[in-house]
Amino acid sequence: MRISKLNSTAMAILALLVISAALFVQNGFAQDRDDDMDNMIDERVAVTSIRPVEDIIDTELIVTNFSANGTATLPIETSVAVACTLVYGTTEAFGQLTLDQDMAGGTHSVHSPLLSGLDPDTTYYFRVQGVDDAGIIYLSDVMTFTTPATDEISSDNLLSPLNGASVMGVSSNFSNQDNDGTWGILNAIDDNPGTAWSSNGDGDEAWVEIALGQRSRINEVAFWTRSMSNNTAQIFQFTITTETGEVFGPFDLPDAEQSYQFEVDIIAETVRFDVMSSNGGNTGAVEIALYGEAVED
Fold first, then answer.
1. Distance between CA atoms of 60 and 76, rounded to whole angstroms?
2. Distance between CA atoms of 91 and 102, rounded to whole angstroms?
3. Is this prediction's pTM over 0.85?
4. Which pLDDT score, from 0 to 100, does residue 99 have?
5. Same-domain check for residues 118 and 240
6. Range of the domain at 15
7. Are residues 229 and 278 in the same domain?
8. CA dihedral (167, 168, 171, 177) positive or negative
9. Which residues are 51's β-sheet partners?
10. What CATH number does the domain containing 196 carry?
């Protein structure tokens, strides 16, 4: 019995020694793994170059184009092609992030990140961030802007909801979004060149019909077609049809670089814009506007 007890005690001690040795080896491996991970992180940080955004931007960063739908844009032009993002929020913790409004993606030099969900008369913090094709990161300081009060936003555009106009129908919005979505039709009548309406691949079949706030005499039409870097989405011709069936146009759009204006004499309560010619794809508009005055019944 004594031998048996000694053997049992010896076995227990041996087991403890084995476990202790295993834990020591395991901890050693874990420490080595942690050290390897730290070294890897240090190496990645060492090869990452972070520079001030002023290295590639020589103009002041100003948030502008505030719209009644709670959007604004920050037009930016960089001397180096970068993928641009902007973080913003009501505190320096930000909480929201926006990208360039370019479906093609990638790096480029002209940027217009869209800020949405903005409350009126509110101060926001923001920071601009970009990364180029070499992996260099560009950062701005944390800055602020204040949105205007609701009653400070107005529009001369007869198509604007601010003037009582409403969308009766649209061929489609990209990715089947609602009219107030990122690519919804309301972005074409918000007086904000940083936003745009994109159809869901409608090409020449794209259209939108809008009821004006009241019967009006229209003397000018303005239309800015959107386009994409893959040579699609650009409208070349469009027409306008009133509620009486009278058709005006076609109106020619030479390019997508700007808004084009056309003098007209139209009396209408509702107007429908139809694409007559395009290079296909997600056709749509940066801005559509009608200018004139109300007509007494």
1. 9
2. 27
3. no
4. 82
5. no
6. 1-47
7. yes
8. positive
9. 138
10. 2.60.120.260
Residue stretches of the chain with pLDDT short of 50: 1-6, 8-10, 12-25, 30, 41, 45
Q: Report the C-alpha dihedral over residues 230, 232, 235, 237, rounded to 10 degrees.
A: 110
- CATH, residue 112: 2.60.40.10
**CA-to-CA distance for 113 and 208, rounded, in angstroms?**
25
Q: Is the peptide bond before 193 cis (omega within 30 degrees of 0)?
A: no
Nearest-angstrom CA–CA distance, 21 and 34: 20
Do 137 and 86 share a domain, yes or no?
yes
What's the confidence (pLDDT) of residue 219?
Answer: 96
Q: Tens digits of per-residue pLDDT, 18-47?
A: 444 444 445 555 455 556 655 554 555 455
Q: What is the 3-state secondary structure (H, E, C) of 76-97?
A: EEEEEEEEEEEEEECCCCCCEE
Residues in contact with 238: Cβ distance below 8 Å, sequence separation at least 6, in sequence order? 223, 249, 250, 251, 253, 273, 274, 275, 276
144 closest CA partner among 257, 40, 63: 63
Q: What is the pLDDT of residue 19?
A: 46
Task: Please classify residue 225 by burial: count the beta carbons closer than 10 Å to its beta carbon, then call 0-12 exposed, 13-18 middle and 19+ buried.
Answer: buried
Phi-psi category of residue 153: left, alpha or beta, with phi > 0 → left and psi -120 to 50 → alpha: beta
Count structural domains, the chain. Answer: 3
